[in-house]
Amino acid sequence: MSLTTTLTLHNGVKIPKVGLGVYKVEKGTEAVDTVKSALDIGYRSIDTAAFYDNEKEVGQAIRESGVKREDIFVTTKVWNTDQGYENTLNAFEESFQKLGLDYIDLYLVHWPVTGKYKDTWRALEELYDQGKVRAIGVSNFHIHHLEELMKDAKIKPMVNQVEFHPQLFQKELLDYCKSNDIRLEAWGPLGRSRYLDDPVLEELAKKYNKTPAQIIIRWDYQHDIITIPKSTKSHRQKENADIFDFELTEKDMNKIDELNRDYRTGPHPDDF
Fold first, then answer.
1. CA distance 154 to 162
2. pTM for this entry
3. Residues within the annotated binding site for substrate?
4. Binding site: what residues are annotated?
């Protein structure tokens, strides 16, 4: 078990279980240094988006890292204002140029924009058929969005990336995705650090001689959820990756599950 440990998507493509998210990482030097540092530590999955405005830097860092392109899994996303069939194809080309890579590993619909996400998905299916992306998926989709999408989809989403952390343990969605062979991926897995002082997490951190952040990332890992904690600091990136030398008991997993409060740090997918 390590940062190269993968889960297999329903089309056979493998995705690392733990990666780096770069939301709100400033474009320019900060973004380049953040990605290079992560790759140097051993991260092999980088998650960006058109909306983050740092795709160019992510591509630059990958090229300058010395790590083989085929060993890195790169995700980006189409933004809400670019949705619709033609717009999405154009938006993809823009992301593609900014990243400067030969292909993208995973392309996601960033939010379920009403009246548009089905046409957006058609464009993603086309990009997949053309071999420009190795896998396609969605982000911030509830069960009803997935059901609606799959009524007309030729290809089922391979990933659904959603806000997911102990205070937003979306068990129904997790079970639905598992039963439909859609991999769930957690953004904001640490709840934007807003409750790392929770007594349960602190108690478990003491028990396992780990930090509350490491307890949460390990919890994701054992739930078979792809997780992409963000940090610009090298020592934090190392800390977030240091989760492979212990295992939470079933009882402790349940304790963390029970922290759910349906508490969101970001918008609700029905009201964004």
1. 22
2. 0.97
3. 110
4. 110
